[in-house]
Amino acid sequence: MPIRLSHSRATLTIIAGFIAFGALTPASAHAHVSIASGLAFANTTQEVVFGVGHGCAGADTSSVQVEIPAGVGSVRPIASGFGQVDVETDASGAVVAVTWQKDDSSVLDVDAQYYKLTVRLKLPDEPFSTLYFPAHQTCRAKDGTTTVVDWVGIDVADGSDVEPAPALRVVPARFPGWNKFTVPSALTDLASFFADAQIVWRGNAAYSSSPTTAELIAGTSGVSSLSGLGAGDEIWVKY
Q1: Same domain for 99 and 42
Q2: What confidence tier does 39 reach under pLDDT thresholds 50, 70, 90?
Q3: Does one domain contain both 55 and 77?
Q4: Which of 4, 104, 204, 209 lies deepest, with the highest CB count within 10 Å?
Q5: What's the domain count of the chain?
Q6: Which candidate, 171, 88, 89, places its Cα nearest to that of 124?
Q7: Do both 71 and 93 map to the same domain?
Q8: Could you report the per-residue pLDDT of 222-236, keeping only the tens digit for each?
Q9: Do residues 51 and 162 both lie within one domain?
Q10: In this structure, are 145 and 222 located in the same domain?
């Protein structure tokens, strides 16, 4: 049992029961262009989905360009009903941007659809990191007027007038049940990296995105609430 605590077996049983039946908090609503496929696993090839929640001031989205960050390889966009998809490469042949473009006849008169744009790619071996994919959204109104919104902000603070770039949280590969990880660098945004975890333990401190489990942690003698992790911390995570 990975939990080395001083409280009673009965308390552990209660916590386990809450974990088993407590629902995780639902994902928060995203902005116009965001990662819709959830967390990604380090050093794996997988599909990453960009969700386009809505257009620009009532105008339909006519094109989306997504920049590919350094360290991401084997980029292959997946064709969709949105329209033509093209890639841009650098001198070495690496894909640095993917663009989806609607045919003029396919642009709607109003902003009425949600779009999913998918890329298959290889993630770097960098668990507990964040990859940013700056995106550029073009919308075209019924009268032909075009608007471009740049979703390029990195670590944007609340109140900033820069729109946030789609952010992909990269986590280690894991198995159902308990997993032991070593955190390579400090983490303060536990909600982003452990949104789908039942509970996270470091020593006698614990974290859960479930409000019910978090309340139980706070009310358990000998257990403190975990709010952040430092470089080199060893943690136990149950999925």
Answers
A1: yes
A2: very high
A3: yes
A4: 209
A5: 2
A6: 171
A7: yes
A8: 999 999 999 999 999
A9: yes
A10: no
Q: How far is CA 104 from CA 83, 89, 94, in A?
A: 10, 25, 29
Q: What is the pLDDT of residues 184-234, one digit of tens each?
A: 999 999 999 999 999 999 999 999 999 999 999 999 999 999 999 999 999
Q: Is residue 203 in some structural domain?
A: yes
Same domain, 109 and 212: no
3-state SS track over 91-148: CCCCEEEEEEECCHHHCCCCCCCCEEEEEEEECCCCCCEEEECCEEEEEECCCCCEEE
Both 64 and 107 in one domain: the answer is: yes
Residue 19 lies in a domain: yes
Note whether 159 and 57 are same-domain residues. yes
Sequential DSSP letters for the chain: -----SS-HHHHHHHHHHHHHPPPPPPPPP-SEEE-S--EETT-EEEEEEEE---BTTBEEEEEEEEPPTT-EEEEEE-BTTBEEEEEE-TTS-EEEEEEE--GGG--SS----EEEEEEEE--S-SSEEEE--EEEEEE-TTS-EEEEEEEESSPPTT-SSEEPPEEEEE----SSEEEEE-SS-B--HHHHSTT-SEEEETTEEE-SSHHHHHHHHTSTT-EE---B-TT-EEEEE-
Residue 231 sits in which domain range? Answer: 9-25+195-238
